[in-house]
Specification:
The protein is an alpha/beta fold. It folds into two domains: 2-119, 3-Layer(aba) Sandwich (Rossmann fold); 126-215, Orthogonal Bundle (Arc Repressor Mutant, subunit A). It has eight helices and eleven strands. It has helices spanning 10-22, 33-42, 59-68, 84-93, 105-119, 152-163, 171-178, 189-201, and strands at 2-6, 26-30, 47-51, 75-79, 97-100, 126-129, 132-135, 140-143, 146-148, 207-209, 213-215. Helix 1 (10-22) crosses helix 5 (105-119), helix 2 packs parallel to helix 3 and helix 6 crosses helix 8. The longest helix has 15 residues, at 105-119. It is globular, with a radius of gyration of 18 Å.
Length: 221
């Protein structure tokens, strides 16, 4: 899962990034409001963590612009001010969740996971497709109840496809959500990654729709 954190306090941003990366997410940072708005408006992120007090363009304006433009990614708003009227304004503007500073990064990680599950229609922290189960809290994948050891990148692939249950996901979309923007990628990187996961979870774990992409919980062609 690919996240964008827009936070101008370098220390807070680094703490958030470290915690989210330890939880298995790909994380990119922006400290400037204009840059953060542009990236959120033009790139594919699974969720965005947005500070309200930003230089050049405030977080509330950014959020309103995204929603007016039809951008639907989950947004968790951070603020140093905990006034109830500001929280109401943020939620009315389209925020999916709200946290006041200071906060515990463990709670932020848990709320981020919950946002992603709800956005994909999965209320439970454990997502199951056939014999495959994904525990989003423990970052564990199992087949028929038996844990399967996956590399971080293999885990991200399984996690993304399971969150998109039954939907065919193209290679370009997978690339956007599994790799950082400046990562140099081989042309067959996704195919190699899918092959490695199939070796561990079974050849039928990920279905291929020729010319379209991959899915979990779908039918191979």
């Amino acid at each position: 899962m690919h996240l964008l954190v827009i936070e101008d306090d370098a220390g807070i941003a680094a703490t958030i990034r470290s915690a989210l990366e330890q939880a298995g997410f790909l994380v990119e940072l922006e400290s400037n409001g204009e840059n953060g708005w542009f990236r959120g408006d033009t790139e594919a992120f699974d969720a965005i963590i947005l500070d309200l007090g930003l230089p050049s363009l405030d977080g509330l304006t950014i959020l309103k612009r995204w929603r007016k433009a039809g951008r639907k990614m989950p947004v968790l708003v951070l603020t140093a001010r905990g006034n109830w009227d500001e929280r109401v304004e943020g939620i009315d503007a389209g925020a999916d969740d709200y946290m006041a500073k200071p906060f515990r990064v463990e709670e932020l990680v848990a709320r981020t996971r919950a946002l992603l599950r709800r956005a994909a229609g999965h209320p439970s922290p454990v997502i199951e497709i056939g014999e495959i189960s994904l525990d989003t809290r423990q970052m564990r994948v199992a087949k028929a109840g038996i844990p399967v050891a996956l590399s971080p990148q293999e885990f991200r692939l399984v996690s993304y496809l399971m969150h998109q249950q039954g939907r065919v996901v193209g290679q370009l979309e997978l690339t956007e959500h599994l790799y950082l923007q400046d990562f140099e990628l081989d042309s067959n990187a996704i195919e190699v990654l899918v092959r490695r996961v199939r070796q561990k979870l079974g050849t039928d774990a990920i279905a291929t729709r020729r010319g379209f992409g991959y899915s979990m919980g779908g039918t191979a062609e």
